[in-house]
Structure to design on (691 residues):
């Protein structure tokens, strides 16, 4: 029987979908996003995919979904009206933060407003000692009084975070139970259910983010599940998390803080799997969509991951050197740097006469001027249209581009004020956008002590292949890899992901005095918790793989390094764990102390093992294959070269080599091969461009 899984990724401009059946056949769809209700585009795309693949809704076994609802809620500040219950004397933790700024001496930096207003942060007279002893229990009347105030003020969601609850959750659990019983109409998030970990600010911030986005993401996923049932799909809905894994929609509804960058990380997971299929162990995964561009590193075949992430406008990065610029979340995530420069990013001239691109995006509505649906401001897409990089239609013919509209927007808003011709202004927009995107790539390479010239640039997203070769030249990268159907590669990456759940136990102490019996007991408890949680989602114990880490730091430090450990520790393991820590520390910072080493947490990542997606075995017969060169058009590659008559090649028909300039077109994306570069196919039908 023919069955299929569907991966869906919602972007700011387009929603991408990929269907993979059990025969290895892939089918793609790219539809305009619907900002008012993002799920509508998903349902439209699924109907279109099933028709193209000639499948019934009953053949769908899983729907895998990446959504920008969580990140957009934070970016647009449209989350729930929130309250916070915390230990008396600690209501200003969110204000105090880490007592630092992301860029020293930046007088123009504005500190992010806390997600919970001060009047809705209430101190409770409970107290827990650092050792986990209850010094003062929770008083029911205090919780009820706070809840009645929240109810009267229209607070929709409440975070609870008490001092030292990571050592003993008794008070926090009691407060949560009282609140839920008395105020069932208000959503509640307790820190011990999200992040039972040391550090008051980090735990409070993570819990506040969860409470802030919970109502919007829950309502959205509930609507989407209802919509899927409405078109006859009864398959489970799995949501991509910030670490590139998948989880049941019910988990995403309870712990949305783990899904803020849902979808974005899936492309990096796909990059890692693709690299493994074609024996490329060192890749820079570059994803450019309509709203943002992001970069991440695959080094020695391994994804770069972090346990901390800050969300902010402009450039977002989990870099250990850039802190306090946004809303902090201590959650597992793929280490991705992101900038607000996408194809829909708006170009404008500031008061000083300088050209800026982004972070504001025209999105899908009203969209770039070339879409002809109401957008009047020039964008990166308009610049690419003016310069001849893009075809006359996008998304397989769904959207016809208005070249005259793009020229008018560039001319009126940019070229005339700057005293330039339209082409020069359009080149300027591309140059600024490329410079912004190069920052993201440098953030995950140069800023980490890694030379980008030693890596291959893997470019995907609807617009990544249009800019990738220019970025490679800027960074000295010699090889650029374009996967099959790069415009929907993030959705394909979800099909390469596995179901994952994460668990943590505080385990403070000194490594040289490691209590292996207590550590093994904690490991056993975490294992039981993981097996029970995944069994509740229908997964058999035999299909679950467990991986443990021990967070370590030098005594007195404030940040940790996770080190892999076995599921059963012996007394002899202490020395090898210390050496692993020293090696990892030196790799990160270039030196290591001789101080004692502290243990902080034990972490567990539980993965449901599935089939490994082999990109070399995938096939696609969706697109009509035409003969090689299908057209020619003039393309403006640079100020020096001016307009060059350039062959336009059907991507599906390309089966050899070509020397640039050339443009390879497909319904999902456009690959630009600049003059002097050469492009060829590999065994997995990827296109490799040598510069």
């Amino acid at each position: 029987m023919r069955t299929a899984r569907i991966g869906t990724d919602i972007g700011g401009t387009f929603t991408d979908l990929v269907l993979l059946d059990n025969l290895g056949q892939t089918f793609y769809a790219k539809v305009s996003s619907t900002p008012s209700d993002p799920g509508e585009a998903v349902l439209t795309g699924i109907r279109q995919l099933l028709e193209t693949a000639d499948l019934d809704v009953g053949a769908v076994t899983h729907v895998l979904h990446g959504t920008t609802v969580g990140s957009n809620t934070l970016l647009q500040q449209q989350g729930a009206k929130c309250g916070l219950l915390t230990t008396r004397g600690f209501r200003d933790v969110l204000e105090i933060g880490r007592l630092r700024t992301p860029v020293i001496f930046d007088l123009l930096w504005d500190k992010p407003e806390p997600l919970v207003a001060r009047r809705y942060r209430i101190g409770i007279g409970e107290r827990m000692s650092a050792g986990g002893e209850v010094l003062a229990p929770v008083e029911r009347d205090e919780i009820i009084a706070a809840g009645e105030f929240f109810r009267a003020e229209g607070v929709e969601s409440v975070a609870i975070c008490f001092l030292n609850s990571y050592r003993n959750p008794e008070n926090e659990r009691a407060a949560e139970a009282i609140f839920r019983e008395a105020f069932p109409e208000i959503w509640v998030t307790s820190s011990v259910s999200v992040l039972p970990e040391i550090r008051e600010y980090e735990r409070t911030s993570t819990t506040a983010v969860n409470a802030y986005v919970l109502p919007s993401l829950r309502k959205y996923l509930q609507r989407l599940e209802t919509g899927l049932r409405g078109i006859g799909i009864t398959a489970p809905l799995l949501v991509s998390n910030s670490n590139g894994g998948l989880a049941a929609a019910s988990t995403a509804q309870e712990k949305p803080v783990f899904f803020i960058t849902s979808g974005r990380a899936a492309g990096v997971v796909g990059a890692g799997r693709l690299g493994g299929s074609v024996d490329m162990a060192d890749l820079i995964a570059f994803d450019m969509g309509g709203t943002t561009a992001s970069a991440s590193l695959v080094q020695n075949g391994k994804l770069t991951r972090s346990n901390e992430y800050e969300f902010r406008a402009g450039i977002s990065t989990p870099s250990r050197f850039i802190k306090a610029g946004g809303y902090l979340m201590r959650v597992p995530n793929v280490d991705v740097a992101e900038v607000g420069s996408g194809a829909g990013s708006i170009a404008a001239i500031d008061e000083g006469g300088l050209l800026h691109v982004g972070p504001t995006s025209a999105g899908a509505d009203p969209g770039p001027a070339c879409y002809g649906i109401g957008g009047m401001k020039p964008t990166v897409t308009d610049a690419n249209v003016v310069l001849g990089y893009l075809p006359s239609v996008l998304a397989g013919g769904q959207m016809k581009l208005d070249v005259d509209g793009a020229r008018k927007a560039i001319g009126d808003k940019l070229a005339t004020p700057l005293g330039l011709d339209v082409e020069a202004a359009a080149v300027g927009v591309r140059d600024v956008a490329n410079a912004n995107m190069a920052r993201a790539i440098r953030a995950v390479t140069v800023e980490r002590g890694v030379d980008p010239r030693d890596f291959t640039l893997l470019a995907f997203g609807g617009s990544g292949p249009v800019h990738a070769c220019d970025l490679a030249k800027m960074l000295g990268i010699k090889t650029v890899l374009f996967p099959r159907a790069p415009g929907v590669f993030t959705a394909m990456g979800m099909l390469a992901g596995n179901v994952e759940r994460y668990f943590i136990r505080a385990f403070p102490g000194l490594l040289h005095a490691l209590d292996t019996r207590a550590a093994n007991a904690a490991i056993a408890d975490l294992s039981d918790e993981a097996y029970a949680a995944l069994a509740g989602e229908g997964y058999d114990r035999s299909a679950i793989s467990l991986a443990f880490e021990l967070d370590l730091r030098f005594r007195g430090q404030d940040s940790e390094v996770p080190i892999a450990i076995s599921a059963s520790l012996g007394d002899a393991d202490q020395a090898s764990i210390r050496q692993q820590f020293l090696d990892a520390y030196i790799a990160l910072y270039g030196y290591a102390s001789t101080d004692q080493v502290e243990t902080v947490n034990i972490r567990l990542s539980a993965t449901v093992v599935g089939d490994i997606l082999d990109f070399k075995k995938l096939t696609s017969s969706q697109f009509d294959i035409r003969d090689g060169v299908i057209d020619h058009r003039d393309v403006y590659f640079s100020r020096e070269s001016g307009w060059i008559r350039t062959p336009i090649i059907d991507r599906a028909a390309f089966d050899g080599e070509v020397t640039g300039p050339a443009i390879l077109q497909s319904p999902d994306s456009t690959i630009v091969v600049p003059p002097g570069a050469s492009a060829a196919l590999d065994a997995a039908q990827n296109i490799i461009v040598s510069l």
About this structure: The chain has 16 helices and 38 strands. The chain has a mean pLDDT of 90. The longest helix spans residues 200-230. The first strand starts at residue 4 and ends at 10.
